[in-house]
Every structure is written in structure tokens, then in C-alpha cells.
Amino acid sequence: MIRKHLKKLAALLLCSLMVFNMTACGSGNASGGSSSSGSESAKATKIRLAFPTWVGYVPLYIAQEKGFFKKYDLDVELSVIEGLGERKMALSGGQLDGVAISGDSLVNLKSEGMDVKLVYMLDNSNGSDGICAKKSIKSPKDLKGKRIAVEENMCEHFFLLKVLEQYGLSADDVKIVNMNTADAGAAYVAGEVDACVVYEPYVSQCKKRGANTFLTDEYKIPLVDVIGFESGFAEKNSEAVSNFIKAIDEADQYWEKNEDECAQICEKGLGISVEDCKYSKSVLSIYDLEDNIEMLGTEDDPGQTYQIVQDASDFYYGQGVISKEVKPDDLIDPSFIRGLAESK
Q1: Which residues of the chain have pLDDT under 70?
Q2: What is the pTM of this model?
């Protein structure tokens, strides 16, 4: 897998640059796009962030579209890069300042030696992710010996391994076909695999084609999405990171009160249909600043955020997915949330 990435390195770096140019949201948009002019441009802190196609990242586009980033003197460049490997290369190569990513995937990056910090919890799947399988597969135990398309070291991989474990199975009992989530859904629809592990809107698309589904809410397995920044960037731009969190929190509140408009923003930014955006929003649990304060806990009594990181590290290490355990204190930077809590 490493050799495969090395072979593609030059192409991926070029593709990343192309993605940045083509998908950066709102360039030249008077309502808060990523390009400003004059004195505003001089004082704005630039933040380059990438993520895959996922409804939980809509607040980023809302903050851009409605001017919340601009309000806090931020020049934010949003890029959709589907593959984790490509995002990792862009982040390690200095082309990104941060990522929106699943919590367990950030644990993986940290274990691999990337200097990243978790600063904010975005959402919990709550049934928005799942295994989609042929009708003949009535239960996850029937996955034994089957070909399953899933992106390794992503939250879907984490979910698959967790579900298999509940049925006395492991990765050795199935045939994992490693590919990004969009391709996994397409491979399943094309009949190239027996099952895929995907998130919305791909889950709904598979269900429309008659797939049996086994979803995160059924198995009580938390899959969370987070914001992670490169440590050096977060340290040098602490005020900007705090302001970024404020902007996302305002976007969360706006989404709650203006779902129809935000579904349009979702479609424009992420290419997910209005219908799929609305459905996913109805299932997804969105975390705002108050939720983050509660989940972070205190220094003496750490909260759920620390437990989620610890559980992901313990599980992946036990499965042999990572070779180095990750301590929550090494990944989570609580200073931003606690600083905002104190200022409320």
C-alpha cells in the first residue's frame, strides 16, 4: 500500500493543487468567499482545509456562504479530496493546514507520526454510516468469506471491524477490497463486491437498489467527525483557530433554523442532492460548541471526547491496524474549547 502511494505521489500532489483551485468554496463571493481584497485580505488568516464528501461537513460551507468566516477575519479555502491517502499527503506536504475527518482516522494519522491536534467535534453518525450488502446476506455473520469494499483506516473500516468482532469474526474472515468510499459504493452497485461500507448519501443509494443495511445506530458504535489542525499551525494561529470554531458554531445554529436554505448550500458545495442532504441531517447528530464543552469535560474529569480517542486507539492497536498507541492527551488540544467556555 505504501509503494502504491509513493508511485502516485507526483500525480497526487498535482491533483491536490487542481482540487484546491477547482473546489475552493466561494472564491470571489461577496458573502464571505475565500478571496478578499484590500486591507481585509491583508489581515485575514488563511486556513486550508480538506475533507471527503459528507453531509456532516456542511457547516463549513454554511460558514463560508453566510460570511461567518469573513466575520472573524478568516480566509478559508475548502477542498474536497475523497481519499484519506491523498489528504494525508497534502497535509504532510504543507498544502493543507487542517482536515475535517473521522475521529478514528485522526488517531491513525497521529499513530503514523503526523503532528496533528483534535480541536473540535463536528458530529456523530447515528445511523448515517453502515454496511450495505446483497439480499442473500441477512446478517453480518453472513459476511464470512465475502468481498467487502471499504476504505482502510477510515471510520467505515473501524465500523466494519467492530461489527465483525460482535459476530466472532475478524478481518481475516472476509476479503477486504480497499478503495475510497465513493468507489466502494459504485463497486457494490456494479456487482463487483458482495458488500460495501459507506456513509450517506451512498447508504441511501444502495438501499434504493435493494441492499440490506446494517447501520451504526443499530450497533451503538459511535462514529464521530472532528476538525484536526497541524500542530504548528494551531500553535502559531491560536486566535484564528478559536475564531474558526466560533464560525462553525454559528453555522451549526444557522443550519438548525434554516434547513431548506442550507440543503441548497449543501448541494452547491458538496454535490449532494437537496433530498439527500435533508435526510442525512434528520439522522445525523450535530455537535455545537456547548456539546463540545460538555464532551471535553474538565482537566480532573475528562469527558467523552477523550474516551472516544482512547477506544479508537485501543481497538486499532489490538487489531494490529496501528503499531503505536495514541494517548488522548497527545492528540486532543482542549485549550480552544476551554478558552471559549471561559469567555462565554
Answers
A1: 1-42
A2: 0.82
